[in-house]
User: What shape does this take?
Amino acid sequence: MTYHRPDKDHHLEDRFEEHSAVPHDPPIEATSDEVRVRTPDNISGMGHRMKRKEDPRFIRGMGRYVDDVKLPDMLHMDIVRSPYAHARIKEIDASAALEMPGVVAVITGKDLEAHKLHWMPTLMNDTQMVLPTDKVVYYAQEVCAVIATDRYIAADAIEQIMVDYEPLDPVVDPFEALEDKVIVRDDKELKTNRIWHWEAGDKAATDEAFKNAAHVVKQSMHIPRIHVSSIETCGMVANYNVATEKMQLYMTSQAPHAHRTVFSMVSGIPEQKIQIISPDIGGGFGGKVPVYPGYVICAVASLLIGKPVKWIEDRSENLQADSFARDYHITAELAADADGKIVGLRVDTLADNGCADAAANPSKFPAGLYSICTGSYDFKAAHVNVDAVYTNKPPGGVAYRCSFRVTEAVHMIERMVDIMAHDLKVDPAEFRKKNFIKAEDFPYKSPTGWVYDSGNYHAALQKALDQIDYDGLRKEQEEARKQGRLMGIGISSFTEVVGAGPSRDYDILGIKMFDSAEIRIHPTGKAIARFGTKSQGQGHETTYAQIVAEELGLPASDVEVEEGDTDTAPYGLGTYASRSTPTAGAAGALAARKIRAKAKKIAAYLLEVGEDDLEWNTDRFQVKGSPDQSKTIQEIAFAAYTNHPPGMEAGLEAIDYYDPPNLTFPFGSYVCVVDIDTGTGMIKVRRFVAIDDCGHIINPMIVEGQVHGGLTMGLAPALFEQIVYDENGTCLTGTFSDYLLPTAVESPKWETGHTITPSPHHPLGAKGVGESPTVGAPPAIANAVVDALWHLGVRHLDIPITPQKVWKALRDAGIQG
Amino acid sequence: MSRHQVSITINGKAYTREVDARTLLVHFIREEVGLTGTHIGCDTTSCGACTVLLDGKSVKSCTVFAVTANGKELLTVEGLAQGKELHPIQEGFWEKHGLQCGYCTPGMMISAKHLLDRNANPTEAQIREGLSGNLCRCTGYNNIVEAVQYAAEKMRSDSGAE
Assistant: This one.
């Protein structure tokens, strides 16, 4: 099966060759357990457990989220949504709604068509309806919008809008979609549901490896559709000023600058006349990267009416219509030689993209970074296929706290490795150790072309095994089996890939994936630092301040960090895919170093010595061999505005746009212990030990917090969460009563730890961590459940592994509770 | 739609407004009074972001009508601190990194207060059970539990209970 998206015929092998030519200098530092601390407490640079600077406003209820924005004369928007997954729209009758007091306008697809705004580009160069003029292609699709003086009136009015639909057969199953009996996108020239075909690796070499293999295991699995479900839904307050012609958009945006550019290009509004303000964001996890129709309609409404308009989606709209994550149907084969060494991996994948390819991937990577799927293992032959299809479901393909399809890849390889180990009757920990890439083999080139920057997989796994007492648990398991008690131990040793760029490979709609920082030191030695990213809870106001403190010796408490206002922040691509520390964090360090270079010249002038006579010490330049002769950064800052050297520009500030030479490759080993109730199929996560390695750590408290949260978002799809559709394409999981997020009761007490293997190419030796646990946890849990049931003949269970699935597996194996 | 005059005391201050019978308490708090610390996350009593204390009892204000709170006393997140002095629960959340995006935090802290008002020395399991009506997507709950333990200890020593 070879077909290509007509406008996108990439030569992946060529690009990966180029990508792999990354210089690795300086060399990789040895792995350590100790967090590096180089500044005193009062400065709180990297390695300090500094309390978060952003917290005082949040714990007082003084955060400012989009729904908290209230402007004079503000109107409210609500949206009519389709009750069908596939239907022609014959008529929209809004007359009754328009007669209601307080209703200002009804906006339909025809209204947008007059401004050529009824369609918009997706982030993957596909197209998506803003509002339909002809047919709807998914359940809960936006059909038209009401603008009213009050949110209650708007909600009443959408009930009064009569839409005449002619239902069409939907195609819900992606395998059926391949048959092209129902065409989802009949607006397109090619009448097919097939979107693209993508390959990575070497097919001939892989087939050859399989031909000669002693053992082959094969498994099909579905990584189902899930939803990020940040507790804050998406929303906007659009405020078009008729006099200044400026469009101010308060928006739940993870990427405000990119969104500004897209809005400008689509609407024709000059970019300087658009200001996007992404205020406090109540969680993002990838769900606030795409541009949803609601945002566009809201902005258009404000433009047409000339008043501020607020749109806040409710939870059902959020779950039913916003971008989903995952939905990969995978068939994988893993081959090993007679010695138990992995020799090859072959993967076929069907990606259910819904009604548009609206994935939030870098443009040239339709399947994201899925080809990282050879994982932590050293073998030479791999080949990966992905075919994408349209179905009558909402568009998407966002991350759910992961770096572009890495979770799917990691789940597959970690399940396959476990199945192989069990089949070979080799302990899964020993099997992994035998097949790991060795510490001395980094930088390592993978068979799909990645160059892993640094790693020490043996150290991380051993630490996790020791911490959980793996040998003791295996003995306990042996005893438990004799008593008919079901317990399982699961391991996941994952490799992540985060921090896009480099910009030669990574872009979004052509905008290169660098990121930026701008630091200004005030005369009194305090600073403001602005970044092109946007925190959604990650704690950037603290970690970025610590980076500046590390580099300049200014106390982190003296550094004000700002993000999210496109009128003031330098241009950047935003926060997702664990890229903030790898890109904007690096930019912060390099901007600080530019400032330090100027500070050195000022210090030399003040101390009347040559620059070469000076050395940096924590927060000052001192004369070599005579440290009492020194100028602190604060003294230098004051001089920069009051006594700067003749011929030098006044001021002390710098900006840096950082384009990384490679991605960073965080990794870790997780071990999970589960107990299974044979009567009910209930799974209890008894213990979970997570050892993460994200290179040098900026704030250990924040890193641990990120790991705890990520683990819980790994537990969620492993055991609870799935977006479910019936055969008509109706979403059955539109509330939190049906779509189950783990509470404090279901979540175990996470046990965490770290090893530190710095990235050799990142200025701070850091890597990014927020998503590692979401990527690494699901297979650890799934492997533990299957490990508990393997002796009963269970080889695999698809996530979410619900009690029903376990109960059925137990009954199929003849176990009666 | 019938209109009703409603008087509700929020954080010790009385607010009288005329509202629709259907006006939700959370909208009364956020829109009528302008206290935006209480958040909306699900509209269906599932997430707990809108939790407030109504006459000392925790309720999810997205599914309470403002009229039913007429004449009653409410505590919202804005009422936890005494001036500049943080409540031990707020202190605990800051000290123990019990929040990330901050969106669930007000409801989570109010539920914690409801729990600690009834049980000064809860076990970890009781804390987890007590907060099971509040969803957090960021923290994984570990540090929220520690924050509540910190607050419980501080509140016990402040009240001289130990």
In short: The two ends of chain A are 46 Å apart (CA to CA). Confidence is low (pLDDT under 50) at residues 1-24 of chain A. Residues 68-168+233-281+288-321 of chain A form a domain with the Aldehyde Oxidoreductase; domain 3 fold (CATH 3.90.1170.50). Chain A touches chain B through 59 residues (CB under 8 Å).
